[in-house]
Amino acid sequence: MKTQKLWVLLLLLVGVLGFSGCSDDDDGYYHSVPGGGEAARANTVHFYYMNEEGGSLIDKSLPATYPVPCADKETQIPVPEVGEFGYYYPANWGICQIGVDEAGMPFFSCYFPIDESTDTYSFYVYSNDSFDRFDLTYGYTNGAIGGDGWYAHVLSLKINGRHVYSDEEKRKAGTYCKVYLQKTGEDTRVWSEY
């Protein structure tokens, strides 16, 4: 009788442990990195800031027109300081760049900020007297070469609540994701192309 109770208890324990390992959220990614910390992630996304007519709001020769990332909407936004590798301003978390595509249209690019203690990160980009909210969702895998050995996958980038980019979306090799932010009065229309 004691053996039978022991087997039932053992079977119950194995069942509980087995089911506790099951998850609908099992997507193959870690959702934080042991030890956490801040980092930055390179990407292949070009952000085009446009007016109502489709013209660029970025003037490569005028730093006051450059989009500026910031932690919150309360930040005082100075004119960016332009350096050899891009532009930044004091207390900014990374270097940004203004490039020009093959059609002659200026675009903004920046490293994506990461807080490895979580799988989400939000920041704002100030441009043309308004702020746009960027919400990133990450998944981490280990085994990366260099750095701390962890690779951050962008599972979703949303701008003002609209999904515009993911590393998992298919696109031609060697191409960039183009994200358009069209400013029309108080509104911003957002869409992307691969």
Structural summary, described in words:
- By secondary structure, the protein is mainly β.
- The protein has one domain (33-193).
- Helix content is 10%, strand content 43%.
- It has one helix and 14 strands.
- It has one helix at 2-20; strands at 38-41, 45-50, 68-70, 81-83, 86-88, 96-100, 106-110, 112-115, 120-127, 130-142, 150-159, 162-165, 177-184, 187-193.
- The strands form five sheets. It has a five-stranded antiparallel β-sheet with strand order 3-9-10-11-12, with no helix packed on it. A three-stranded mixed β-sheet has the order 2-13-14, with no helix packed on it.
- A hairpin with a 2-residue loop joins strand 4 (81-83) and strand 5.
- The longest helix is centred in the first third of the chain and has 19 residues, at 2-20.
Largest sheet: 5 strands, antiparallel
Arithmetic mean pLDDT: 83
Please provide the ordered H/E string of secondary-structure elements.
Answer: HEEEEEEEEEEEEEE
> Which bin fits the share of residues in helices?
under 10%
Tally the structural domains: 1
The largest beta-sheet arranges its strands as 3-9-10-11-12
C-alpha Rg, in Å? 22 Å
What is the tally of helical segments? Answer: 1
Q: What fraction of the residues are assigned to beta strands by DSSP?
A: 35-45%
Quaternary structure classification: single chain
Question: What general form does the structure show?
Answer: globular
**pLDDT < 50 runs, ≥5 residues:** 10-24
Structural class estimated from helices and strands = mainly beta
* C-alpha termini separation: 67 Å
Give me the count of strands.
14
